[in-house]
């Protein structure tokens, strides 16, 4: 087994800061910012309420897979869906697009 003495580790934040200097990475990251905002807010509110994805889905009137896609940034949700999620979580969802 090889020793880890020669390996150095870098935090995700440090790596992200380094990559943000690359214009292509920064452009693609910026494109995803609205999805990041939505996912962070939904996950945060759901966890604060100690609610599972399945429980949230039931309150929203959708399937757990839909909530999973929202939280995993694999969806382009409608305003209507976001409104239903916000009501189910008793919170506001704010998205800045710019």
Keywords:
DNA binding; 98 residues; HTH cro/C1-type domain-containing protein; single chain; mainly alpha
Overall description:
This protein has 6 helices and no strands. It is an all-alpha fold and 98 residues long. The chain has a single domain, classed as 434 Repressor (Amino-terminal Domain). Helix 4 packs across helix 5 (64-71) and helix 4 (53-60) packs across helix 6 (79-89). The protein starts with 11 loop residues before the first helix and ends in a 9-residue tail after the last helix.
List the helices and strands and how they pair.
Elements: H1 12-19, H2 23-31, H3 33-48, H4 53-60, H5 64-71, H6 79-89
Helix pairs in contact: 4-5, 4-6
Domain HTH cro/C1-type: 42-96
GO molecular function: DNA binding
Organism: Candidatus Chisholmbacteria bacterium RIFCSPHIGHO2_01_FULL_49_18
What is the name of the CATH architecture? Orthogonal Bundle
CATH level 1 name = Mainly Alpha
What is the third-level CATH name, the topology?
A: 434 Repressor (Amino-terminal Domain)
The general outline is globular
Oligomeric assembly: single chain
Largest sheet: none
The total of helices stands at 6
Q: Structural class of the helix and strand makeup?
A: mainly alpha
Distance between the termini: 50 Å
**Overall residue-averaged pLDDT value:** 92
What sequence of helices (H) and strands (E) makes up the elements? HHHHHH
Portion of residues in beta strands equals under 5%
Low-pLDDT regions? none
**What would you give as the CATH superfamily?**
lambda repressor-like DNA-binding domains
Helix content: 55-70%
Task: Compute the number of strand runs.
Answer: 0
Radius of gyration, taken over Cα atoms and rounded to an integer in Å: 18 Å
Domain count, please report it: 1
GO molecular function: DNA binding
InterPro entries: Cro/C1-type_HTH (IPR001387), Lambda_DNA-bd_dom_sf (IPR010982)
Protein name: HTH cro/C1-type domain-containing protein
Domain HTH cro/C1-type: 42-96
């Amino acid at each position: 087994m090889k020793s880890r003495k020669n390996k150095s580790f870098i935090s995700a934040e440090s790596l992200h800061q380094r990559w943000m200097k690359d214009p292509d990475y920064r452009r693609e990251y910026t494109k995803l910012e609205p999805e990041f905002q939505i996912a962070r807010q939904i996950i945060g509110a759901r966890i604060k309420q100690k609610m599972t994805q399945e429980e949230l889905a039931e309150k929203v009137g959708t399937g757990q897979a839909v909530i999973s896609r929202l939280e995993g940034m694999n969806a382009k949700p409608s305003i209507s869906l976001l409104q239903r999620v916000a009501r189910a979580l008793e919170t506001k969802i704010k998205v800045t697009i710019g």
